[in-house]
Design goal:
With 273 residues, the protein is α+β, with helices and mostly antiparallel strands. It has 3 domains: 2-66, Herpes Virus-1, CATH 3.30.40; 76-123; 130-272, Apoptosis, Tumor Necrosis Factor Receptor Associated Protein 2, Chain A (Sandwich). The protein contains 7 helices and 14 strands. A hairpin with an 8-residue loop joins strand 3 (41-42) and strand 4.
Length: 273
């Protein structure tokens, strides 16, 4: 009890070490410490020697007046990462006009690209992406995921995406492997043969979508000889799928991947169309 009364209790008697005024420990180290008329406080910014009497004055000085305050460049919003003392800001702005102008141009171009992409998505109806759920299950069991598009791409044809979650051939265990196949539509009367399709795949782009923002998607484009099926066994390393904070990128989220497939379909017999 004696230890509590003399060393711990916030209501124990305590004398201000600066002015000698007495009160409870809580009062003297709290409100009084900020208002003590005899206190001499110095600005906390490196290089500043200004002294003040009250903590409120110090806080106001540091926040609004101190020329030694460390501040970010006023053009931080467009990419300038320089920090400097307040007194050096004017010289920095004057000496880096071209740098800041280039940053402004690059930022404007970047925003324009984002606006153009958004406008394109609104004006052109894109097919929905392929959604692969239970990725870890497919990977651990070394199974392949197959999904057929719900929309037709040419004369009733569909495309199917096959994903080997754990890779295949020499890339098994290190990469995801993908394959795109051209399929006949069930109701397309022009597709009346089982193997000799009138159309073939040529240029294919498979894109793995970043689930954090509409940027930094992973795409692989490949040209193929005439045929109805092709792919890449080394599409993307498994190590690249997780969360990447510096790049704000995450392909695998909630055990799910999203793929978008773009294909150029070539008619083998254009004179019959």
């Amino acid at each position: 009890m004696d230890y509590h009364l003399t060393e711990v209790c916030p209501k124990r008697n305590y004398k201000c070490k600066i002015c000698g005024e007495e009160g409870t420990y809580a009062e003297m180290t709290g409100a009084h410490a900020k208002l003590c008329n005899m206190a001499i406080l110095q600005c906390t910014n490196t290089g500043c020697t200004k002294t003040m009497k009250h903590q409120e004055e110090v806080e106001d000085h540091v926040a609004n007046d101190c020329e030694h305050a460390l501040l970010p460049c006023k053009y931080e919003i467009i990419g300038c990462g320089t920090k400097m003392k307040k007194q050096d800001m004017a010289a920095h702005i004057e000496n880096n006009k071209q740098l800041h102008l280039d940053m402004a141009v690059n930022t404007t171009l970047h925003l324009k690209k984002k606006i153009d992409r958004a406008a394109k998505r609104q004006s052109v109806q894109q097919p929905p992406p392929f959604k692969m759920t239970r990725f870890q299950e497919y990977k651990e069991k070394n199974r392949k995921f197959i999904c057929q598009s719900s929309h037709t791409i040419s004369n009733g044809y569909h495309i199917a995406l096959t994903v080997h979650a754990n890779g295949r051939d020499k890339f098994e265990g290190t990469h995801i492997s993908v394959c795109v196949t051209l399929l006949k539509g069930n109701l397309d009367e022009s597709c009346d043969r089982d193997h000799d399709y009138d159309y073939s795949l040529r240029n294919i782009t498979v894109t793995l979508l970043n689930q954090l923002e509409d940027e930094k998607h992973y795409s692989s484009a490949f040209k193929t000889p005439p045929g109805i099926s092709c792919g890449r066994t080394d599409f993307i390393p498994l190590s690249e799928l997780g969360y990447n904070p510096p790049h704000n990128r995450q392909y695998l989220k909630d055990d799910t991947l999203y793929f978008r497939v773009e294909v150029e379909v070539v008619n083998k017999k254009p004179w019959l169309v």
